[in-house]
Specification:
The structure holds two protein chains of two kinds. Chain A is an alpha/beta fold. Helices cover 45% and strands 18% of the residues of chain A. Chain A has two domains: 158 residues, 3-Layer(aba) Sandwich (Rossmann fold); 134 residues, Response regulator (Rossmann fold, 3-Layer(aba) Sandwich), CATH 3.40.50. Chain B is built from 14 helices and four strands. At the A-B interface, helix 1, strand 3, helix 3 and helix 4 of A face helix 3, helix 7, helix 11, helix 12 and helix 13 of B.
Chain lengths: 376, 351
């Protein structure tokens, strides 16, 4: 009796173990649903090149290693893998020794990571994403302990004014894409809009959209959009319905590449590619393919290179450590990529795009003559 | 060294094997592994040696450990509470709603969360004991229910100060200073979450191993029918186990809420699996081969040590799941492959 009982009990525990293993696996699969935008898949990490600095390194870089911690909300997904790749290569070039904390999108874990980092005796801390309410008190703890903090894409200017806040400029990205749209279609046109509000970078792009609509007397005939696990597919359905009701729009602004892809496929499905144009934000290998397909309505997009952004954030940390960072807020500009440019230069992937568009490389941004800036 | 212990209630409980190497490994292997890793990290990583690192590691561990302790009690009665992560997540949303939307004091949020946790446990007990739905299936359903229901009153948004409500007004309250002290406060160098963890670990250990009720719970877990025939009110004990599990998960959620400082809707998502893992790992500690409070606490600390150590050695994030998987696997090998407890009655009192 005992043996049978025990056997069934063991079977039960074994089942649990299998369930656990399966669930751990599926949890791993669902990590990259961040609100952030995607870029080229980093199947193999891009390796940058550095130019030798022309000046001697100031303190504390004259006595390497300089130790810092990077407290990241999530390193998963194409965007953050590239961001991390750029930041690490720039750190190596500067002789910075880093401890990399990755909270795997767990805000509570990021808080304890930050505490560990503060207590571990590092000279500086980079915080990448996170919740303002969660991170702000801890950022102030670090500053109070005399540790300079550089953050990327968290709104902390008000609650931790002594830290350096960096971000890719969503306003400039939206402005570039919409500027091209204005040039292509002109004022007084019926236009469609696909966006999801409540997500910080998309909200910042929304502000610029409203300015353009008002300033150019555009008639916004529809505004759809939802954030799901399959953004492109699900939004294609929404845009499809909107287009059936409003086939006379001249252009559609969808300021996130997954939204743009959904929009493009809806336009194509309705056979309207020659009448309605799409404008987006962000780019990846897959996006380049969609933009350059024959008769594609996707006319322009605005983007940054996450590798270059990661490296520029690390240079900001270096400048802050050397006491040379004056501004408390740093915006990284985007660049405009038009369909015409891609076609004219026969660009089919991100590597070719980087080669053709040196502006994507931010090596001159947040740099100094003593910094071996990394180029991608 | 072979002896037979007879418990007060008359059941023959433990028949010990003569000690040999294999028994030593099964019994102390896990503790030895924990100590060895600790020494290794302390020797190789200067930052790991800082006491602040130790306390933030324990602080991080406390949430998983507390949820795991609650889960352990449901495992003791032969079940498993799959709703602990969702309950903790709900606790975060309830805290935020109470303080941010209804502008109440911190203690109101505290009480609301504990009551909500107990209610969820009672609901689980109702499904399992009265409706006779198997534990795993009932708590799975509860898990989905809470994950969804907690988002209904907040329209699926994270609740933070300045939130725009449905009627267009701005949420009037914020997380109170006192409530934030649950996570940030400390007695001397020991943070409150670590204290809460230690107290609950000792209380749970005492309850399960040193009281009659605990022994009855183990008896129910090994053979509910026999326990019923022996006069135990099986349904009542199982109901208590699930309610305690709900309350423990709510306490874990309180710490999370205080740590995050807003009603983060994703809070608690990863907690269930981590709690199940530490409870399973705990079954192998000291070779007792059954869920127990000491094992769960030690399992949580070992995983905390490994995660902190590997992070400081700059292992990429995906290695953390590999580490957890390996720890679990090793623990299971201790429990199933190396252990030979054929003569040991499953209802033996641990420790």
């Amino acid at each position: 009796m005992t043996t049978t009982l025990k056997a069934s009990r063991r079977k039960g525990i074994l089942f649990l173990a299998i369930l656990l293993a399966f669930a751990l696996f599926s949890a791993g699969c669902s990590q990259d649903t961040g609100s952030d935008t995607t870029a080229a898949p980093a199947t193999t990490a891009d390796v940058g090149t550095t130019e030798a600095p022309t000046a001697a390194m100031p303190a504390p870089f004259d006595a390497p290693p300089v130790k810092i911690a990077v407290v990241q909300n999530s390193g998963a997904g194409d965007y953050f893998q590239q961001w991390t790749n750029g930041a690490k290569q720039q750190a190596d070039a500067l002789g910075i020794e880093y401890t990399w904390y990755d909270a795997q999108a767990d805000n509570a874990k990021q808080a304890t990571d930050m505490e560990t980092a503060i207590g571990s005796g590092v000279q500086g801390i980079v915080v990448d994403h996170g919740q303002t309410d969660t991170m702000c008190p801890l950022i102030n703890d670090a500053l109070d302990a005399g540790i300079p903090v550089v953050i990327y894409d968290i709104a902390i200017l008000e609650c931790a004014p002594a830290a350096v806040q960096t971000q890719q400029s969503d306003a400039s990205l939206a402005d570039l894409s919409l500027g091209q749209m204005l040039e292509d279609i002109g004022k007084d046109q019926p236009v469609g809009y696909v966006n999801v509000l409540g997500i910080a970078p998309l909200d910042r792009r929304h502000v610029v959209w409203e300015e353009y609509v008002a300033a150019n007397n555009w008639d916004q005939v529809f505004f759809v959009g939802e954030f799901t696990n399959a953004v492109a597919t699900d939004n294609a359905q929404l845009v499809d319905a909107a287009l059936k009701a409003n086939p006379d729009v001249r252009a559609i602004f969808a300021p996130y590449d997954e939204l743009t892809k959904g929009t493009v496929s809806a336009i194509n499905d309705n056979g309207l590619a020659d009448k309605i144009w799409a404008y987006g934000i962000d780019i990846s290998n897959a996006d380049i393919e969609v933009m350059t397909a024959e008769g594609s309505p996707w006319k322009a997009t605005a983007t940054t290179d996450p590798n270059a952004i990661g490296a520029a954030v690390m240079r900001t940390m270096a400048l802050e450590l050397a006491g040379q960072q004056v501004d408390r807020s740093v915006d990284f500009p985007g660049v405009l990529v038009t369909q015409q440019f891609l076609l004219d230069n026969n660009i089919t992937n991100m590597v070719e795009l980087r080669a053709a568009m040196p502006e994507l490389n931010l090596a001159d941004v947040q740099s100094a003559d003593w910094i071996p800036a990394i180029q991608f | 060294m072979s002896k037979t212990t007879t418990a007060k209630d008359g059941a023959t409980l433990v028949v010990k094997q003569p000690l040999d190497l294999r028994d030593l490994v099964v019994r102390y292997g896990f503790i030895a592994v924990t100590v060895l890793f600790f020494i290794y990290f302390a020797a190789t990583i200067p930052a790991f040696r800082q006491s602040s690192t130790m306390f933030s590691m324990l602080k991080f561990t406390s949430v998983v450990a507390i949820a795991g302790l609650g889960l352990t009690m449901t495992m003791v009665v032969g079940g498993l509470d799959l709703s602990v992560g969702a309950t903790a997540g709900m606790a975060v949303t309830v805290s935020a709603m109470t303080m941010v939307i209804y502008a109440q004091q911190g203690w109101v949020a505290f009480v609301a969360v504990i009551v909500a946790g107990a209610l969820i446990g009672a609901f689980n007990a109702l499904l399992i004991v009265s409706f006779k739905i198997p534990d795993l299936l009932a708590t799975l359903a509860t898990m989905f229910l809470i994950q969804g229901l907690k988002l209904v009153p907040v329209d699926g948004q994270s609740v933070s100060s300045g939130l725009i409500l449905r009627d267009g007004s701005v949420a009037p309250g914020k997380f109170t200073h006192g409530f934030l002290q649950i996570n940030r406060g400390s007695i001397g160098p020991v943070p409150y979450p670590v204290l809460i963890f230690l107290v609950l670990a000792v209380v749970t250990w005492f309850f399960l191993s040193r009281t009659k009720w605990g022994r009855v719970m183990y008896a129910i877990g090994s053979n509910p029918e026999a326990a019923r025939l022996a006069g135990a009110r099986v349904g009542r004990y199982r109901a208590v186990a699930y309610m305690l599990s709900g309350v423990y998960a709510a306490v874990a959620g309180l710490i999370l809420a205080s740590r995050i400082g807003q009603g983060d809707i994703s809070a608690g998502n990863s907690l269930l699996l981590d709690a199940v893992a530490v409870s399973l790992v705990g079954t192998s500690v000291l070779g007792v081969n059954k869920p127990n409070a000491f094992g769960t606490a030690l399992g949580a600390v070992l995983i905390g040590i490994l995660l902190t150590g590997t992070t400081m050695m700059n292992f990429p994030y995906y290695w953390q799941d590999v580490v957890k998987g390996l720890v679990l696997l090793v623990a299971l090998v201790f429990s199933f492959t190396l252990s030979r407890k054929k003569q040991r009655f499953v209802a033996a009192v641990p420790l």
